[in-house]
Amino acid sequence: xxxxxxxxxxxxxxxxxxxxxxxxxxxxxxxxxxxxxxxxxxxxxxxxxxxxxxxxxxxxxxxxxxxxxxxxxxxxxxxxxxxxxxxxxxxxxxxxxxxxxxxxxxxxxxxxxxxxxxxxxxxxxxxxxxxxxxxxxxxxxxxxxxxxxxxxxxxxxxxxxxxxxxxxxxxxxxxxxxxxxxxxxxxxxxxxxxxxxxxxxxxxxxxxxxxxxxxxxxxxxxxxxxxxxxxxxxxxxxxxxxxxxxxxxxxxxxxxxxxxxxxxxxxxxxxxxxxxxxxxxxxxxxxxxxxxxxxxxxxxxxxx
Length: 304
Ligand SMILES: C[S@@+](CC[C@H](N)C(=O)[O-])C[C@H]1O[C@@H](n2cnc3c(N)ncnc32)[C@H](O)[C@@H]1O
Known about the structure:
Layout: H1 14-31, H2 42-49, H3 52-58, H4 72-98, E1 103-107, H5 114-117, E2 125-130, H6 132-144, E3 152-157, H7 164-170, E4 179-183, H8 192-205, E5 211-216, H9 225-231, H10 244-247, H11 256-262, E6 265-271, H12 272-278, E7 296-302
Parallel strand pairs: 1-2, 1-4, 2-3, 4-5
Antiparallel strand pairs: 5-7, 6-7
Bound molecules: S-adenosylmethionine.
GO molecular function: methyltransferase activity
Enzyme class: transferase
EC number: 2.1.1.-
């Protein structure tokens, strides 16, 4: 299945299933005795989605030897990668709110539970944007287990290729207040021009003092679909509706650090290798890494 400009999904299909996959990684990282992250909502959310493969993966019940190109070492590398990624963006939000920001927008929020688990200061409003079925599922599931947001949570169920700034503003977003933005695990699922438009819209909506965090995956530029298919294991054979090679938009695109700097964002990039080193975790060898390889985590503030 390839992408279409108006494709839709739930958490078990297409791009939506990638949200369940990364949440399973967070659930596994949460159980890791090294305790790098604590996301108690990842596990019930993944269980509620009910894709057997991800539930078993999370519970350590997959027969990894039976899955082509998957191994215990590769699985641990994925979990470690999710741990350092989650911690990087958690720390970003804590720093942004310590700096006085009280308005937060999480783009492509998927099964991100930060609105329920981070220690937001009083008065913080967290907006979450994702496709309607994704938003509805998370809200209903977390309400069902009695979870309460730790900030005022406002949902904006809309596709990010549509007029999301209008929908965000209609939901109460204040264009005069500084905002902490997050686009995590999103950009590779957007065409290059949509990535630029996303940052143009964010910039136009950002009051002075705003902050931004995202990541850039250089491997998307010279992405080799055959290699990715070969290395990703045969998810389809195991009942999972994900063919990463057909979900991402490969080819030339602007480097996010350069693009944001051209829009007056004072951002810095930190490699995932560096984040592993900071946590004292060995970075995966290339053969055990994600086929897309290195990731640059990016954060900073609007200048002027
Ligand atoms: C890999 S998941 C990441 C989810 C979340 N940010 C996280 O890190 O857990 C990708 C997410 O992007 C969302 N997404 C991708 N393209 C989108 C679009 N055009 N409009 C709205 N959501 C989109 C998907 O629904 C999914 O939740």
